[in-house]
Each structure stands twice: as structure tokens, then as C-alpha cells.
Amino acid sequence: MQAPKELEIDTGLTPQVSAPQIVTSIDGLDIPMAVVENLVIKHLSAHPKSDVLELARYLGVVTHIIEDLLADLRKKALVEVFQPSSQSIFKESTKSHVRYALSEQGQSNADTAFKKDAYIGPVPVSLKAYNDMVESQDLRANLITRPDVECALGDVYGAQRLVPILGPAINSGRALLLYGHAGTGKSFVAARILNSLNTSVYVPYAVYAAGNIIKVFSEQHHKPISNDYDREVISLKSHYDKRWVLCQRPNVQVGGELTMDMLEVNHSEHNRIWIAPLQMIANNGILVIDDLGRQPMPVATLLNRWIVPMEYNYDYLSLPNGQQITIPFVLTMAFSTNLNPQKIADPAFLRRLGYKIQFQPLVENDYLSLWSDLSEDKGLVLQTSALESLLNLHSLHKIGYFPCLPKDILGISHDIIQFEQIEPEVTSTILQRAWDLYFTADEQGESVL
């Protein structure tokens, strides 16, 4: 399937499915007309005296839909019309457009609409349109190969062991358990899994479901790769529905701050915009639950939340009005922990995790290469004697070659060098000082007073 003409794409990613076509009628939006009218009213409240082109850009729909809506709102005496004058300060291109503002009754209606739902943005897509799009963008429909994973893990030391394991795991679409000692690179690798996926996906700004507008597009988690969504003028032949954004597959990571509220449709304390849960934001991408076992709720409570979605690939969401909807659960889920899996999850849950991938310390050659490359990046000269001392310290204190250590210890070494105002060389002495500052006495097997 080809992307529409004039679609400007970077990163080399190709949309997995055909672009959503531009809707040309109110009925084609497949959501209640009252919802769209409320959005127009709220936009006019926030942006008084907007013209048709501005409203079309705000709402992501074609101009004649806006014109039809404004005509209806004028009949209800909710909107007033302002003709442009010859002294207009507006741009020449917009002088010919009349401008619209709310009447007193219209402003009252807008206030009521804002109290019910503060969302202001493009018209939401229907739940059916969302579900259909998510299912069609299932990453399992576009299998990755060894070169894809090798490229994704190009900056990961020890990747040669992980590539043949992670490749089949990603293609399976099943949940992953990444476990091992802290500092073995679980989170680092999890963040790069997405780089192996060579297709892009369409994400809606918002979804309308059972009387609620749910904001899905997240500036934090979705990275647009096309400027088509930001065009002011829409071409029916060359552009797609501006209620969708073409993005890299989402990569959502959350750790010890995760709460159960984040897994349900919810809103912040400061406004009443209903936000999609993390798994809905991560659909067609990856959701990483980092530091499993460090969350405020019991692990069993968190894991039980995922049993049905992982087994059947759909999820039930409770909405603010008490209704419940079903959405696809089409994503790669990765749990990362440095705890013993047998102690934090029961056998029934572990069975549903298709792949359990243990992360181990690096082998000596990879470890020393990492030290050498990072010291060069930091502009430091790493003396051969310092490397010999490093290996002796590992042997003496029985500490593995964890990939987090070079970056952390070199950082401390750099701080020491700057403070002492000496040559940027890591000597055995500086390395020993940095090591002692990094590890506690008990970690090194020493007695603590």
C-alpha cells in the first residue's frame, strides 16, 4: 500500500496501511452532530471571530462541513457573523472570509460544554474507525527480519546474543519479560526494540466512544513523521483525514510511578479532558512496564489487570459515564524487573508471557570496548594501567561486567578531573577514587561502621 502523493515522510518509515480518506460530510464523521457542534462552539469561545478556514484547521475537517454547521448554529442564534472591513488587519488571503463569534446564548452554551468536557481540538474519530485502524496496523502483519533487529540494537554491546532472541519475540506479538540484575541494560534495550519496526502508523487525536471524547494523541509518546496533519489547506486527492496523525510506532515506558488510574480513562486534576489509558496510547507500538515490583500497588493486582488483554488481544475500559467499551489490545508489552520472576508472579501469569529473556553482565571484550568508546566520547584518555586495575577491582569484589558501570564511573572520573584541574586522563588512582565513590562499602564486601 502506498502513501498518498505529496506526503512528506522522514525516518524512512512507510505507513503500514492506506491513509484514512478525508470525510466529506457530517454523516461520514460517524459521530453525533451535537458533539461536532459543541466543538465548534468551544473553539469559537477560545478563538473569537474565527473564519471558516481557521475553524476547519482547528477541527481537522473540510470547510463545507464547517459551513453547514455554522449555518445550523446561526439558525439557533448561537453564532453571530462579522463581515470583513476594508480596514481589516487580517491577512490578505483571509479578507474575503466572514468571521464568526458566539452570541450571548452561544457563550452560555460553550460554558456548559466546557464544564462537561474541556476537550478542544480536532473532531474525534468513531470508536469503530479507531478499532478498525488499530487492528489493520497490527505489527505482526509486517514481520521484521534479522537485519532490522541488528540495526535497532546497533549501539547495544553484547547485541549478538540478544538479536536471535528478541527477533522472534517481537514478531510473535506476545508479552515479554526482561529480567536480570540491575544495570544489565534491560531498559536501554527495551527502548530500542521499537527501532526494529520499519512501518509507521496513524494515530487519532481523539476517539468518541459512548458519549465521551477520549484524547489519544500524546505529544509525549507520539512522534509525527509527516507534516500533512499541519497543513492549512486540504487537497482531497493528495492529503489524508487530518483527524489522524502519521507517527512512528508509539513507545510508552512507565516505571515505579505507575498507578492503576493510569490504566483507565481518566483526567487530570486541572481539567476535564478525558485521557486515554497508557495501553490505548501504546496501541500498535510497545508498552514497557519498567521496575516491575516497585509500583505502589501489589504486583498481583497489576499483573491481573493484563491477563485478559494478553490472552485475547482486547481490553475493556470503563468510561466516566459508567459505560464500558472494548478496544483492541494490539501492542508489544514488555515487563522489566531485577527481581526474581518466580517471587513476583504466579505460574498462570508467567505462562502468558511468551518470552522470558534474561539479561546478564557483558563478556570481558564487550565490556572493555564499551569503556574505550565511552571514554573517547567524553574526551578522556583511558590508561592501560587503569583498565588492568578495573579488571582487578571486578575480580576482587566479585562484581559483574554490568553495562551501566562504564558510563557511571567515567562520569565520576570526569568530575574528579575537572575539580582537580588535571589532564583528562583516567589513571588507576582516579579510577579507584571513582569506584569507591560509586559503590557503597557493603557492595564491595567491606564492613560498615
From TrEMBL:
Residues 172-364 form the AAA+ ATPase domain. InterPro entries: AAA+_ATPase, P-loop_NTPase. SMART domains: AAA. This is AAA+ ATPase domain-containing protein.
